[in-house]
Design goal:
Layout: E1 9-16, H1 19-28, E2 35-42, E3 60-66, H2 72-75, H3 78-93, E4 99-102, E5 106-109, E6 112-122, E7 125-132, H4 158-179, H5 181-191, E8 198-202, E9 207-215, E10 221-225, E11 228-232, E12 236-238
Parallel strand pairs: 1-2
Antiparallel strand pairs: 2-3, 3-7, 4-5, 5-6, 6-7, 8-9, 8-12, 9-10, 10-11
Helix pairs in contact: 3-4, 3-5, 4-5
Length: 239
């Protein structure tokens, strides 16, 4: 679980505006992949929907640059691979904690967000950005956050965490390449938070409520409403 995966390179920086932005620059310059990019500090880190992501000292901010041979719609499934890898990494350091995944691409520890994933891409490349609250976490967020110290765990170094993360992502990426999304889907559902429970799904133009029935073969959330089951491709979930 701790061996750096064969064929994956890495570039480490003291400071970047954003590891995803660096991935974009490197991709457009023709950089070879797969490549992990890490930064001790980000000055313009971001999460989903353009939200700021404050990395801070001791937290993990990394991006994996890939050139997968698949359509952009299909490569979106790799957010589930990234979430699984991050969950397994967190579980390794906090074995007694309840570590789950939250649709579409968050990792929870004891019901609070400890990691997030942001996929961005361009012509022929994909950036898989992952942020993990190893040492500290923000307060006052829309969905409560946590970190390893709040769980009573001394945080590992970012280098230790990245080694585990890279190894587990390589495992899930290989499974996806060989067997398709169903392998990821099955493993993700085994860790899914709120499965079968009432949820609120905030969509771009409306808010829906119902029971979380799972995810379909494309990764869309299945929301059971009084009128039937609705597939939701993009949105945010609250319990």
């Amino acid at each position: 679980m701790t061996t750096w995966p064969a064929g994956y390179r890495r570039k480490d920086y003291a400071e970047l505006d954003s590891t995803n932005e660096e991935a974009r620059r490197l991709a457009e310059a023709g950089e070879e992949t797969p490549l992990w990019i890490s930064a001790t500090r980000q000055t313009a880190g971001r999460g989903r929907r353009g939200r700021a992501w404050d990395t801070g000292d001791g937290n993990l901010a990394v991006t994996l640059l890939l050139r997968p041979q698949a359509s952009q719609a299909v490569t979106g499934q790799l957010s589930f691979a990234a979430a699984l890898a991050a969950a397994e990494m967190v579980q390794h350091f906090a074995p007694a904690a309840a570590v789950t995944v939250k649709w579409p691409n968050d990792v929870l520890a004891e019901g609070r967000k400890i990691a997030g994933v942001l996929l961005e891409g361009g012509s022929g490349w994909l950036a898989v950005g992952i942020g993990v609250n190893l040492a500290h976490h923000p307060e006052g967020t829309a969905f409560p956050a946590t970190s390893l110290p709040q769980l009573g765990i001394a945080p590992p170094s970012c280098d230790q965490a990245l080694g585990l993360l890279a190894a587990r992502f390589a495992h899930w990426y290989d499974a996806w390449m060989e067997n398709g999304f169903e392998t990821l889907r099955t493993a993700w559902l085994e860790r899914a938070s709120g499965l079968g429970a009432p949820i609120t799904a905030r969509l771009p133009h409306e808010t829906r409520q119902g029971l979380f029935e799972g995810i379909d073969a494309s990764g869309a959330l299945l929301l059971k409403e009084r009128t039937g089951v609705r597939a939701i491709a993009a949105g945010e979930v609250f319990f």
